[in-house]
Design a protein that fits this description.
Shape: rod-shaped
Strand order of the largest sheet: 1-2-3
CATH class of one domain: Alpha Beta
Order of helices and strands: HEHEEH
Largest sheet: 3 strands, antiparallel
Strand content: 5-15%
Number of helices: 3
CATH superfamily of one domain: Zinc/RING finger domain, C3HC4 (zinc finger)
CATH architecture of one domain: 2-Layer Sandwich
CATH topology of one domain: Herpes Virus-1
InterPro entries: Znf_RING, Znf_RING/FYVE/PHD
GO molecular function, one term: zinc ion binding
Membrane topology: Multi-pass membrane protein
EC number: 2.3.2.27
Structural class: mainly alpha
Pfam family, one: zf-RING_2
Distance between the termini: 52 Å
Length: 111
């Protein structure tokens, strides 16, 4: 009985260790994804609207789609390889959980 209990405890501990190791490796990969974000500064809504795709209307070019706050002049932005821009701080928080674009779900490869 004691041997069975010891083996069961060892199996549970081993599975927990594997799950923890896999999760930690995934977090490190996501943190490296932030290196793929191009840094820029918000200049003005008129310039941002001119760069936006014609006929879009779905995206708000003057606001972060993660925190839903408007960009302010001189604020640090990050642009993903897919072309979507977000606050740099918001993008950092996002990549701690997921490794894809919040809008189009395109995979972001680590830099």
């Amino acid at each position: 009985m004691v041997i069975v209990l010891a083996v069961a405890l060892w199996v549970v501990a081993r599975l927990a260790w594997r799950a923890w190791s896999a999760r930690r490796a995934g977090l490190k990969r996501r943190e490296r994804c932030l290196g793929s974000v191009t840094a820029s500064q918000f200049s003005s809504p008129a310039e941002e609207e001119a760069e936006a795709a014609p006929g879009g209307g779905e995206e708000d070019p003057a606001g972060c789609r993660i925190c839903l706050e408007a960009y302010e002049l001189g604020e640090a932005l990050g642009t993903l390889p897919c072309g979507h821009s977000f606050h740099r701080v918001c993008a950092a928080k996002w990549f701690k959980r997921l490794d894809s674009c919040p809008l189009c779900r395109a995979a972001v490869q680590p830099a």
